Amino acid sequence: MHPVSIVAAAILVAASVPAAASGGIGCEATDALLDFKVGTAVSRGMGGRFFEFHATLAIALDGVPDDLRKLTLDEALTHSWLDGKELKLQFYIERQEGDFASVDFVVEAARVEEGEYRGGYMLTVITPETPYAPDPVARTATGAVVCFVE
């Protein structure tokens, strides 16, 4: 998705609520290892709460099981931080059935100009090495992320 499309999506989400009381956030990270997108409206009061929150993560990292490759992160946000200088998001999911596996995805970006934040992501996927060798293996990836905040 083109950065302008991220801004447009964030604006559309924010437009669904009273303008003076909210804004929007859109982030994207797309490379050979993953495709991440998030869009949310955010209140300007009440601690900057997110609403109409939607996030997806498609993982292409070698060794990741099929059931962890395409994730909806709408309910997986465990930490968020947004101020005039930084934007941080952390997502965490555990496999609910079968052998333990988890996905931890962190976005950290700093403001580069009004409304634009750039930074990086850190992905950690923990899975058993194989069904016959259940010791956990961590697979990691890092890359760039761009966010727009209104």
What this model shows, in words?
It is a single chain. The protein is mainly beta. It has one domain (3-149). The protein contains one helix and nine strands. Strands 4-3-2-1-9-8-7-6-5 form a nine-stranded antiparallel beta sheet. Strand 8 and strand 9 form a beta hairpin.
Annotate the secondary structure layout:
Layout lengths: L2 H13 L6 E9 L3 E10 L6 E10 L10 E3 L4 E6 L3 E9 L7 E12 L2 E15 L2 E17 L1
Antiparallel strand pairs: 1-2, 1-9, 2-3, 3-4, 5-6, 6-7, 7-8, 8-9
Distance between the termini: 18 Å
Tell me about the largest β-sheet. Answer: 9 strands, antiparallel
Helix content: under 10%
The helix-and-strand class reads: mainly beta
How is the largest sheet built, in terms of strand order? 4-3-2-1-9-8-7-6-5
- Give the amount of beta strand, in percent: over 45%
Provide a count of the helices: 1
Our count of domains comes out at: 1
Choose one word for the global shape. elongated
Order of helices and strands: HEEEEEEEEE
Mean pLDDT: 86
Low-confidence stretches: 6-19
Radius of gyration: 16 Å
Question: Could you give the count of β-strands?
Answer: 9
